[in-house]
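RESIDUES AND SHAPES:
===
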Amino acid sequence: MTAASLRSDRGSTLPIYIWLTGALLFAAFAFFAFAQAASARNGAQSAADAAALAAAQSARDELMDGLGAAVGKDDDWLNWLNGQEFDGVGAQDAATRLAAENEADVVGGPDGTTVNGLPGYWVEVQTRYTVGDTVIPGTENDKAKAHATAVIEPRCDLPIDADPTKPVQLSCDGSPIEIDPGDSNPADLPDASTLFSVHLAD
C-alpha cells in the first residue's frame, strides 16, 4: 500500500470520527437535559407532596380545635372523631407556605376530596425555576408541575354503644384512650397525631 493510499484512507475516516464525536456529544447533552427535567419534576413532586400534607395537617388542627371546644359542651362531640368535621379555612395558607418553602407556587387547589372514604386535599404546584438551557429548544422557559393528595385518617375506634354524656373508651391503633366529657379540658386531649394520621394517598 502506498503512502498516498494511506493518506486517502485517513482522510476518508476523519469525517466519520468527527460525526461520531458530534453524535456522542449530542447524546451526552441530551441525557443531561433529560436529567435536568427529571430533577425539576422531582422537585415539583416534593413541593406538591409538602403542600398537600400541609393542607391536610391544617385541617387536622382544625379538627382538634373543634373537638376540644365540643367535648362536654356538645352531645355531638363524638362526630369530630370521624375526621369529617372541618371547614379547611387554613388549608390554602398552609399549602401556599409549604410550596413556597420548596420553591414552588400553588396553581391548583387545595381542593377538598375523598379517597377511599377518607377526607383530604388535592394540590397542584408549579416550580418557580425552569428546567434550564439545554440542547432541547424551549426548556429554558419550561417549569415543572406536579400534584398530590393527602388524606386525614382517624386512628381511633369508637364503641358501638358510646354515650357522649359519659366517659368514652377509645381504641387508637390498639392503645386505650379515655375521654371524659364530664371532666373535659382541651389541654388534656391526646396529641392530634394520636387521634388522626395525615398521609399521602396511595
In short: Confidence is low (pLDDT under 50) at residues 3-8. The helical segments are 3-70, 91-101, 192-195. The CA atoms of residues 133 and 140 lie 5 Å apart. The chain has three helices and seven strands.
